[in-house]
Design brief:
- Helices cover about 0% and strands about 50% of the residues.
- A hairpin with a 3-residue loop joins strand 11 and strand 12.
- The strands form seven sheets. Strands 1-28-27-26 form a four-stranded antiparallel beta sheet, with no helix packed on it.
- The chain is mostly beta strands.
Amino acid sequence: EEGSMEVEARKPDMKLLLSFLPAKTHTDLDDTINALDFSNDGKFLATSGDDDSVCVYSCETGERRAKVLCKRGGVSCVRFTHHSNNVICASRDRAPEESVRYLALHDNQYLRYFKGHTDSVMQLEMCPADDTFVSGAADKTVRFWDLRDPNPMGILECKTIPCLGYDPEGLILAIVTADNHLKLFDRRKYVKGPFSTFNVNPGGRNGQWTHLKWTPDGEEIVLRSSAGIIRFHNSYGKGERKNSLRTRPSPSFEPAISPDGNMLLCGSVGGMHAWDLQKMAMVKTWDDAPPYALRWNPQHLMFASAGGDKTLKLWLPPE
């Protein structure tokens, strides 16, 4: 098809991963992108921006397919539901009556508002297993939701602003807070409290935890701190620390792990860096505007980056 990008189906290896180049760059953005997400089928990329818009891009052509304005309350934390025509997103402003919104992209209609958070929502995550999701906010709560119900199914009180993430199968929710306790919950029995709690103190001047990810095999939980420390902890047993990496300090840079689990990408003041996770070694630096948001396509050899220079890039290996 004319104008399409060659989306790869090859099996990745480190040499191929390190060859990625921007196949499509959008420089016509009105403001910075604050979040990215790919649809489960890998066909679409959604962005939320500080210009109060949600945009959708085709992963086949790299072109923008839709732009939805969200002027009331702004927008952040965009996430696809399990349907590629629908997303959830948060208000950037304090908006208790519409902390989270459920948006149909095909007709730009809000399907539901999720009320309750009394301060800005910092994170949204869809459960991989069903139509439930969680939100973490500056009001120091985690709320559990179902797309069909505007009221929360449950609320967890935290001592500080939480970072959270589901394991790849959607069975376990991990939450870490500034008291340096990593807690694992059975997402179907969260009212009973965590079934495991690990101490994950970053130590000394290593900042507070700002991001939480799982490796694709579910074996490890990856934490990044505001001081640039990236730690890998077992997701079972006593949560032993396995490895560490160091990036430049910043609370904003989001790490992203390739679907095969072999490469980690993360921005820093110096650009974007890649680590070989088998060797725990930095293997490449792209001298570019640092990306605040990074996301791998779950189905294809592609990732997206968005930085403070108001650009969006879709990366592919060379033909």
